[in-house]
């Protein structure tokens, strides 16, 4: 079995699936209410931030996803005590006894996650050394870590490449510095934040990512005692402090999950109330959703997304860093765009290879052409490099059932949506990978009236 399938099977087992294949009888609208919890792309970083505190941290609204389990395992091998709190989804993280971990244990716990790279700054502060195994994550491009390594080196980390991974030390301690990112990378910005807050002196970061999940990480670090200011034009300034305490924080909701369920409502002609979703972090998505022909009602406790009837309209989308249209939103929405009347265009400018999921949609009857040209006006790093990163979707096309192997997290969710909207019985395997980022998705599908069977159950 390939490593991806192994990860997916393991993840599937952890969410309570006895198999990692589901058989879906599609063609029925998804209707009902589900709740989203804290954002995968914040919660995992917030857990790492707990390493920086002298006292325990309490994190609320933690989703039951395998990426959280990976980070928990990594924290535990470094001596952090992790316990469940009083309310569901509450974690208590006690870093009092942080210690070096064996490379082999780190490697065993890292699984397919890219999070270990973010342990480096905090571990260098606490222990003077850190180790990163070969990193995984979704196969959506090269996903290099060059920005991270350059950032850490600028703070004074000494980096040694070993056959099994990368070892870092900080013999002189870490010192604040000026950093300019060549691209507003989410992970590299988090790397700077998690390292600079305890470095000696001031750090100035230009070209920073400013995603809402990063702003929430800044909220957490401020609660811990950090001094961070976010200036205009992607400049973040951090004044290092000698020590930080633990934090108590309720995580920002998962806007990527909310957008995925919204797309599922549209593609299946359904009506889904996403409890916990909020308007401000979804503004850009909501505009596009409305342009396609979707309807939404904003409530205090969530957002109702639904297909109001009538024809869906084609749109032109270019994915971008915040406040642009998130790359994680495009895959689920592409399924709905196969039902729009006319030609839609999606120009992916964040990852060079994020259209792998389209092949399965084409097999199901979608009319989608992929192009290596930039079909849009946003500056893009991939145009002259033969990366297939633009899609032309002509609709509407009837989707028919198929056997699908889920390739990655967001692409996998889009396959689920396609199978749910297609007439007939589809078999979707490797679904365990979806549990990396979608908490309790099997339960949620049941709550929405989906007609499916988990193989082996
Ligand atoms: N990049 C480099 N070098 C680096 C780091 C990034 O060239 O050292 C490039 C990447 O290859 C990519 C671009 O910069 O082309 C953006 O990458 P970024 O660092 O912003 O992404 P990330 O931190 O690895 C996070 C999320 C992704 C989300 C992106 C963009 C987490 C764990 N992952 O990834 O989420 O798509 O930001 O918003 O926070 C997902 O949830 O499915 C997912 C992939």
Largest sheet: 4 strands, mixed
- List the total number of helices: 14
Describe the global form: globular
CATH topology of the largest domain: UDP-n-acetylglucosamine1-carboxyvinyl-transferase, Chain
CATH architectural arrangement of the largest domain? Alpha-beta prism
Strand content: 15-25%
What is the fourth-level CATH superfamily of the largest domain?
Enolpyruvate transferase domain
Bound molecules: uridine-diphosphate-2(N-acetylglucosaminyl) butyric acid
Distance between the termini: 22 Å
Family: Belongs to the EPSP synthase family. MurA subfamily.
Catalytic activity: phosphoenolpyruvate + UDP-N-acetyl-alpha-D-glucosamine = UDP-N-acetyl-3-O-(1-carboxyvinyl)-alpha-D-glucosamine + phosphate
Pathway: Cell wall biogenesis; peptidoglycan biosynthesis
GO cellular component, one term: cytoplasm
Present the secondary structure layout.
Layout: H1 3-14, E1 21-26, E2 31-35, H2 40-49, E3 57-60, H3 66-77, E4 81-84, E5 91-94, H4 103-110, H5 120-127, E6 129-133, H6 146-155, E7 158-162, E8 165-169, E9 178-180, H7 186-196, E10 202-206, H8 212-224, E11 227-231, E12 235-239, E13 248-250, H9 255-267, E14 271-275, H10 283-292, E15 295-299, E16 302-306, E17 316-318, H11 327-337, E18 342-347, H12 358-363, E19 367-371, E20 390-395, E21 403-405, H13 409-421, E22 424-429, H14 441-447, E23 452-454
Parallel strand pairs: 2-14, 3-13, 9-10, 17-18, 21-22
Antiparallel strand pairs: 1-22, 1-23, 3-5, 4-5, 6-8, 7-8, 10-12, 11-12, 14-16, 15-16, 18-20, 19-20
Helix pairs in contact: 2-3, 2-8, 3-4, 5-7, 6-7, 7-8, 9-11, 9-13, 11-13
The structure holds uridine-diphosphate-2(N-acetylglucosaminyl) butyric acid.
